[in-house]
Amino acid sequence: MKRVLFSGLLILANAIAVSAQVDNSDVITVEYFLSVDAVRPGDQFKIGVLATLHGDWHINSHTPNEEFLIPTEISFEDVPGVEFGKIHYPNGHDLTLSFSETPLSVYDGATLFLIAARTTEEIEFGKMTINGTFRYQACNDMSCLIPTNEPIEITVPVHDEKAAVNAINQEKFSIEPAPLQTLQGERSQGQNEITNLIASQGLVLTLAVIFVGGLALNLTPCVYPIIPITISFFVGQSSGKLSKSVSLALFYVLGMSITYSALGVAAAMTGGILGSSLQNPLVLVGIACVFLIFAFSMFGGFEIRVPTFLNQLAGGSRQGYAGALFMGLTVGIVAAPCIGPFVLSLLTYVAAQGDPVLGFLMFFVLSLGLGLPYFVLGTFSGSLERLPQSGVWMIWVKKVFGVIMVAVAIYFINTLIPEPVYVALMTLTLVGGGVLIGFLDKSSANFDWFRPLKYLAGAAFILFGAWTSVSAWQTANAPQIAWQHYDEQLVTDAHAAGKPILIDFYADWCIPCKQIDANLFRATPVVDAAERFVALKADLTVEKSEEVELLRKRYGVHGVPTIILLGPDGKESRRFTDELVGFEPGEFVEIMAEVAR
Question: What's this model's pTM, rounded to 2 decimal places?
Answer without folding.
Answer: 0.45
